[in-house]
Amino acid sequence: NRLVMALEVDLLFRQLELVITMHLSARDGDLNVRMESVEAAGYDLLDLLGVDREALGRLMDQAIQRQVEAGLGEEARILGVTTGDHQLVITARMAP
């Protein structure tokens, strides 16, 4: 599932629009986030800053997994991810 988020950031005297594009999937009970781009003013900030897309995706995987486990227990498993026009749904199962 491809997720595209756009947000406005106020920088001193100028507004900047960020467009974040990522792919989300569930694999073997875990979330898999693959970062495609973080764009501003026509530039991909990940490229400009030399950010490792895989490492950033893993950090996001871990952060979301911690939130799921905080709500459902340590052994919670992510079953699926779906996206809509204005929503992201992560389906998970509590530990037995």
Description:
The protein contains 2 helices and 6 strands; from the N terminus they run ββββααββ. The chain is α+β, with helices and mostly antiparallel strands and 96 residues long. The strands form 2 sheets. A 4-stranded antiparallel sheet has the order 1-2-3-4. It has a two-stranded antiparallel ribbon with strand order 5-6. The longest helix has 20 residues. The two termini are 28 Å apart. The mean pLDDT is 89.
Q: Give the neighbour order of strands across the main sheet.
A: 1-2-3-4
**Which structural class is indicated by helix and strand composition?**
alpha+beta
Straight-line distance between termini: 28 Å
The radius of gyration over CA amounts to 15 Å
Helix and strand string, N-terminal first? EEEEHHEE
> Approximately what portion of the residues adopt beta-strand conformation?
over 45%
Strands, count: 6
Mean of all residue-level pLDDT scores: 89
Give start-end ranges of low-pLDDT stretches: none
Bin the helical content: 25-40%
* Major beta sheet summary: 4 strands, antiparallel
> What's the number of helices?
2
